[in-house]
Amino acid sequence: MSRPVLLGVPYDAGASGQRGAALAPPRIRQALHDPSSNTFTESVVDVAGPGILEDAGDMVLTGETMLEDVEREVARQLEQARIPIVLGGDHSISLPVVRAVHRVRPGFALLHFDAHPDLYPEFQGNRFSHACPFARIMEEELTQNLVQLGIRTANAIQVEQARRFGVRTVVPDEWSRDWRYDGGLPVYISIDIDVLDPAFAPGVSHPEPGGVSTRHLLATLQRITAPIVGVDIVEYNPLNDPAGLTAFVTAKILKEVVGIVLRNGSV
The dihedral of CA 27, 29, 32, 35: what is its sign? Predict the structure, then answer.
């Protein structure tokens, strides 16, 4: 049976604005194991228990080969019967992770939680910006379908891109807490922390008011019943989180995701 493995990708050279997301993986781990809380999920699984969650540490990256290096390492983990839970980093890291999952375990839907569609053909002259990964993913036909939840910054270009690629967009007013994925495929999950309202997660580079609560996001995640083929959690920026509150929110999401991966089983 496949088991989840934690992998840090401390990369933020794809960011279009403030850097800092590369600092996130160790801060998330620190919050996960902080004695102020515990390592049990709401379904009473201890993610720090023996044989529950492996930790592959943080990759050492250079900007020139990031895409190839991340794809290679994630594919290696998949080939060893592990389910990657990848901590970014900015959202540009999703492309190589999804490429690796498609190569080793093709045939999945992609659930993308975010304030932003990240569907630009290119952004500021960069086709591999954190504003573009889902355009590349759809162009390369890496997923059977893409559902984006929480989107509240789409402009004309990205609306046209969503129409072109057949993306299903669920805006906040349409996203109820009992929303359920019903596509019948295994699922890859991509969570940009700015899907949450800044009141719940201020420690991001691009805060966007009008988002959902932490409880709302967790309720949706906990209703996923399909096998999980991979996860990324991205765009937490410790530089904008002086009290460390967003680190704890991110660690909470991570903890619950691990429990869901274990509960739902592997492909």
Answer: negative
Full DSSP string of 154-222: --HHHHHHHHHHT-EEE-GGG--TT----SSS-EEEEEEGGGB-TTT---BSS--SS-B-HHHHHHHHH
59, 86 Cβ separation under 8 angstroms: no
Ramachandran angles phi, psi of 206, nearest 5°: -130, 70
140, two tokens: 């390369």
pTM of the model as a whole: 0.97
Q: Give the other-Cβ count within 10 Å of 55's Cβ.
A: 14
Which positions ≥6 away from 105 have C-beta within 8 Å? 78, 186, 229, 230, 267
The number of C-alpha atoms within 13 Å of 169 and in the hemisphere containing its C-beta is 22
Q: What is the per-residue pLDDT across 21-66, written as a single tens digit (0 to 9) for each?
A: 999 999 999 999 999 999 999 999 999 999 999 999 999 997 789 9
Q: How far apart are CA 185 and CA 182, in angstroms?
A: 8
Chain segment 108-156, per-residue pLDDT in tens: 999 999 999 999 999 999 999 999 999 999 999 999 999 999 999 999 9
Closest CA to 4 of 77, 57, 62, 76: 77
